[in-house]
Amino acid sequence: MSAPITPWPRVFEGQRFAVLGLGQNGLPAAVTLRIMGAAVVAWDDDAARRDAAAAAGVPLARPSETDRLDALILSPGIPHDRPAPHPEAAAMRGRGVPILSDAELLFRAVRAAGSAARFAGITGTNGKSTTTALLAHTLAAAGVPVAAGGNLGPASLALPLLPDDGVYVLEMSSYMLERIATMRFDAAIMLNLTHDHLDRHGSMAGYIAAKAAIFARQTDADTAVIGIDDEPSRTLAGDIAARPARLIRISGNRHADFFAEHRILRDGFGPIADLSTAPALRGTHNAQNAAAAAAVALALGIERGRIGPAFASFAGLPHRQQRVATIADVDFIDDSKATNADAAARALDSFDRVVWIAGGIGKDGGIAGLAPWFDRIDHAVLIGRDAPIFAATLAAHGVSHEIAGTLDRAVPLAFDRAHRRGIAAVLLAPAAASFDQFANYAERGLRFAALARSVPLPAACS
Q1: Taking the chain, what is the end-to-end CA distance rounded to the nearest angstrom?
Q2: pTM for the whole thing?
C-alpha cells in the first residue's frame, strides 16, 4: 500500500541547519526541515536554484556566514573531501560542524516523532534502483505501508512519516553513506562491488569502506544481505559475519543462502519464486536483485507465498530492460540506462539472441570487454559519435553490423533484420553515454520507445 500522508511534527524545534546544494535532494530537505521546526539557511552556487529556494520561502545565506549550526546537509554530489572539498564544506569541517546526508536527518526525524517504522537500505555498484523498487513493490503488495526513495528519488526528506508498521526503502549511494552518523538499517543490502567513484573515495578500499557503512550499528535483531558474485563482496561478507546482524549471502548464479537455479529463486527451505514469470527480472543480475529483495521481504515478515506473485507483477524501472513495444512478435527492449560496457553485458546476458542497437560516446575500453557476449548478437546497428570505433571492434570479432548513425535510422533497420531472421528482441543497450545526440539516457530511451511504437507492420502482417 502507498504511504499514508501524516503531518510531520516539529521534531527539530530549536535546531539550526544549513543546506548546501538545492537540487533534487537539497531543496526538499530545506523545505521539510523548516516544516519540522528547524531554523534553516540554504545556499547553491547556481543563481536559478537560489531563486527557486527563495520562492519556496527558504532563507538564503552561505553556511560560512552563519554563526551557529547543528549540521550541514550537503547534497550527495558535492564533495566535502576528495577530489577537492567545496569551500563551504571545507569551512564547516574547519569549524567542526557535522556534515550529514538528508537520509540521516530522515532517520532522526522518524525516531524523534516516536515512530518505530523500519528502515531497509540498498547499496552496491549496480542494481540498486531495481532492487529498491522491487522490494518496495513487494512490501506494498503485501499491504505494508511503504515509502521508497533516497538516491532513486524522491529525496529522503521528501518522504512522509510512516506508522510503526511502515518500512522506508532507501537506495543509498556511497556519497550518502559516507555522511550518516546514527542511522541504523533494520535490513541492509550490499549487492556488488566493482570499481566506481574512485576519484571521490580515493581508492577501492575507500569506496568499499563508504559502502560498508550501510551495516554500521546493526544489532542481532537486524539483517545484513550481501551478494557473493564478486570477490570484494565475498571478502566483505566474511568481515560482516563476525558482527551481530544475521548474515544472508545471495547470488544470481551460484549456491548461496538465497540463489537462482534454472530461473527458480530458492533458499534453504525450497523454491520462492519462478523468475520466468517475471519479465522485468531477466538475467542473472536481476536474479541476484530478486534474491536480495526476497531475503529482506522474508526478514521483515512478509508471507513466503506473496513474493512470487509480487515479482511477477513488478513492471520494472524505465530504461532498464523495459519492454516498450512488441511488433510482429519482436520485442523492443529499452535499456538506455546501460551507458557502459558492464551494464550492456548484463543486458546482453539476459537474451539468447538479439539485434543490438549500441553507440554514442563510448567509455574507456569501448566494447572490447563485451566479447564473451558477442555470440548473442545476430546483428548490431550502431549510432552516435563512436559508432566507427564500435564497428572496428565488432569487425575484429566477426560480428555482423552496420552503422546507422542516428536512432531514427537504427530502429527500423534493427526491426527489419529481427523480423526477417526470426530474432525475438531488438535491444537498445548502448554501452555509451548519450550526450552526442540526446540530453541524457532517459531522452534517448523515450525516443527509442516512440520509434519502436511507430514501426510499420510488415506487409505480410498488415
Answers
A1: 42
A2: 0.90
